Amino acid sequence: MRATLIVYLLMVSCACVKLPSNFQKCYRNQPDLNECLLKATQNGISQLTRAYDEVNIPNLHPLEVSEVSIGAGTGPVAVAQEFKDCKLDGFHKMKLDNVEFYFKGKSLTVAGTFPEITIECQYELDGKVLLLPIKGTGPSTLVLKNLKVAGVFDYEEKMRKGKTHINVVSSNLTMDPELVSYNFENLFNGDKQLGDNINRVLNDNWKEVFDDVKADYIKVVDRIIVQLFNNFFSKVSQEEALD
After folding, report:
1. 26 with 33: CB under 8 angstroms?
2. Is the peptide bond before 177 cis (omega within 30 degrees of 0)?
3. Is the separation of the CB atoms in 142 and 81 below 8 Å?
4. Where are the beta strands (DSSP E) in the chain?
5. pLDDT in tens, the chain (243 residues)
């Protein structure tokens, strides 16, 4: 399988800036650091309904992504999924369960739930799903309900002008939705009966369909999270954020 993602968040710059005043600050030596990080991160995520250009963070309500490619699976999804002009919404509503920095090991762990992620794109499909032909181009909507995610992000530290900047170099993300719903419009050149039947089959068998290509969706979400993290810490030093 293959997954590609093209998203323009902002150009990374080495200029160091202060943490926005409406973002809560924690101190790495405080005894309740992890509790503070959890509250601060939760508060920060909820505010990402506008762009913060000064710290390289775009508006997440919605996040606009120009292209996403999901490769064909090895089971029931025998079709590559090509998406363009996507709008991903719901990242700003994440409910965090855990946020921990391990400074000695240089890693960050995050766990939480997105109540609902909506992905609206222009799609192109030509292949088979569950042995049934599927073909068409047009608008599509994918909704992931109660999406649980957990990730470990390993980072390196780089010194710039006497300040420590963090950059994620590897990550391991898991992702499990409670429910996935699909709607592909204009299947089979607008044949409503065929299109409705295929959408019904996809939704009736959502878990089997989604699990076959889940690894590629994980790669897309992982790359978004890593890019947001790296963009932020390219601007805000560890000293400014956590000291």
Report:
1. yes
2. no
3. no
4. 3-6, 63-70, 77-78, 81-89, 95-102, 107-129, 132-160, 163-176, 179-184
5. 445 444 444 444 445 788 888 999 999 899 999 999 999 999 999 999 999 988 889 999 999 999 999 999 999 999 999 999 999 999 999 999 999 999 999 999 999 999 999 999 999 999 999 999 999 999 999 999 999 999 999 999 999 888 999 999 999 999 999 999 999 999 999 999 999 999 999 999 999 999 999 999 999 999 999 999 999 999 999 999 887
